[in-house]
Structures are given as C-alpha cells and as structure tokens.
Amino acid sequence: MPTVVRAQTTVLTKAFYKGTVGSYPIAMQLQQKRQGDTLSGSYYYLRSGREKTINLTGVLQHPTLLTEKVAVEKEGKYVRETTGRFSITAPLLATGKLNGSWTNTKTGKQLPVQLQLLTAAEDAPVFYDYELVIHKEEIVNLSEQEEQRYKATALKIIQEGKVLQTLSGFSEFIGNQPEIELEDLNFDGHFDIKIPISFPDRTKYDGSFLYFIYNSSTQKFIRHQQLIDLEYLLFDPVKKEIYKYSEAPEGFVINCYKWRGNEVYLHHTEKVQ
Q1: The pLDDT of residue 248 is above 90
Q2: Over the Cα atoms of the chain, what is R_g?
Q3: Residue 204: is its pLDDT beyond 80?
Q4: Spatial separation of the C-alpha atoms in residues 145 and 34, rounded to whole Å
Q5: Inter-residue contact 56 to 67 (CB < 8 Å)
Q6: How many CA atoms, within 13 angstroms, populate the side-chain half-sphere of residue 89?
C-alpha cells in the first residue's frame, strides 16, 4: 500500500532577462533554488541565436559573479574553458533591472551589462510556499527488480501558513526529491508552475512536466492539459515561442508553438542537423 511521505519541496525559480553586453543584445536565463546561494543558467547573443547558448554558473553575493564556460577543442578533445565573467550589482529577482559588467578572462577587456527582468520582480507566486503531497510505493522496474518510487498526488500553495489553493487530480511519479519550478510559461509577465514528473516504464522520453498557468486576476493556478499532452517543452520568452524536440533520422525536428489566447498552436517546424 502507498504511504504518505513528508519531505520539503524544493522551489526552483527560472527567471529570464533581456539586455545588452556592450552594444550586443543578449537573452539570459538564470535558475535559483530557494534558500540556496548557487545559480545556474545560460545566455546567448540574439544575432547568434538560441542554439549557441553559453552556460553560466555562479554564487549569490555582493556583487553576484557568474562564470561562463564554452567547449573548446584542444588536441582533438573538447574541454570546457572559462571565457568570461559577469559581475552583477543588483540582487537577482529583487529588482526588474540589473546592471554590471562582463570581463573577457583572456584579455581583461570589460563591457557594461544592462539587463531587464521579463517577469514582474514582485510577482506573487515567487513569495508563496509550495508543498507536494507525496506517496511512496513499491514498483517493478524495467529490470524486473522491485524499487521504491514516489508519486505526487497534489500540490498545496501556501501564503503565511494559509493554504490558498490545492492542485490535485493527478498521480505522477517524481524523483526522490520533491521539486517544483516557477517559470513564465505563457509570457504574460507572471510566474507559472511546472512539476517535474517521470515515466519509469519508458526507455526514451522518460521525463516531462505537469503545467499550471497563473491567473493574476483570480490569483489561482489552472492546469493546462494541452501543454501536459505535449510533454517536455522549452520556453523562450524573448521570441515568445515554445519548443518541442523530437528525434529524426538526420538530427532533430523542433516544433515551434505560439500562444493564441489560452491555447498554443503549431507555428512552424525547424530541422537541426
């Protein structure tokens, strides 16, 4: 029989910024776990496109430092090499604008950085507490061995100890650490909810999300079944597009979706070699 498990739910906030390094327009995405001091993310130059993203890691401090690393070929092997560092003066997510500088680690050249948060800096979902209702059960995995797995059956949204809303009507496998993600999924300037889920009976495409859209008028989250049916998606608030990658004989096919009202539609398809 499944048993209820109490475990702290990790909240990961994924914030997007648009701005410039010197005179070069960029888009930046930063991820921060609540009550943590580490950051991860990426950015890309708009003229180069989202396929040429540069990874970032950093630590929250004053100023916040972000280190970029790129894959460089050396003696026939690819290694990750530090190529630049951002120094950001304003606290992340506490203000709509960030300023700072970018330094080329090889030459020492510095360029000014200006960034604008694409969501509301004081958006209500950022300040809510979240608690997944978890059940533990025994399953037989693909290797025909018994193992313990965890299922999420509800999500409580809490403000100052009061439950504002309970999202239910699902029962999905999750990892050992309960987690939700806050991200603006419909590009309206407000954070929405993604719950990472897994499919233990699959050998491919074994992970996805449950998606819930925040309605700022009612201050409630609404399950979005169309996004759930599309499964694993990437969201680009700069182009206001949603991407679903699928394998093809000669690379990948990317289906690009856009919002029309409260629904998404297939806008175009790209092929990546």
Answers
A1: no
A2: 20
A3: yes
A4: 35
A5: yes
A6: 7
Omega cis (within 30) before 196 = no
Based on DSSP, count helices (H) and strands (E) in the chain, helices before strands: 2, 21
Neighbours of 195 (CB within 10 A): 23
Place of tokens 């909810």: 193
**H/E/C letters for each residue in 246-264?**
EEECCEEEEEEEEEECCEE
Q: Do residues 86 and 63 touch, judged by C-beta distance below 8 A?
A: no
Alpha carbon distance 78, 99 (integer Å): 33
Give percent of the chain above pLDDT 70. Answer: 94
CA atoms within 13 A on the CB side of 152: 28
What is the sign, positive or negative, of the torsion defined by CA atoms of 134, 136, 139, 143?
Answer: positive
Contact 203/210 with Cβ under 8 angstroms? no
Tokens at 7, concatenated: 């475990």
Burial of 6 (C-beta count, 10 Å sphere; 0-12/13-18/19+): exposed
Q: Taking a C-beta distance cutoff of 8 angstroms, is the pair 255, 243 a contact?
A: yes
SS3 track for 216-235? CCCCEEEECHHHHHHCCCEE
3-state secondary structure of 50: helix
Does pTM surpass 0.85?
yes
Chain mean pLDDT for the chain = 89
Which pLDDT value is given to residue 141?
64
Would you say 82 and 109 are in contact if contact means Cβ atoms under 8 Å apart? no
Residue of 117, 128, 126, 133 lying closest to 169 (CA atoms): 133
pLDDT confidence bin for 27, thresholds 50/70/90: very high
C-alpha span between 60 and 41 (Å, rounded)? 13
Q: Is 124 helix (H, G, I), strand (E, B) or coil?
A: helix
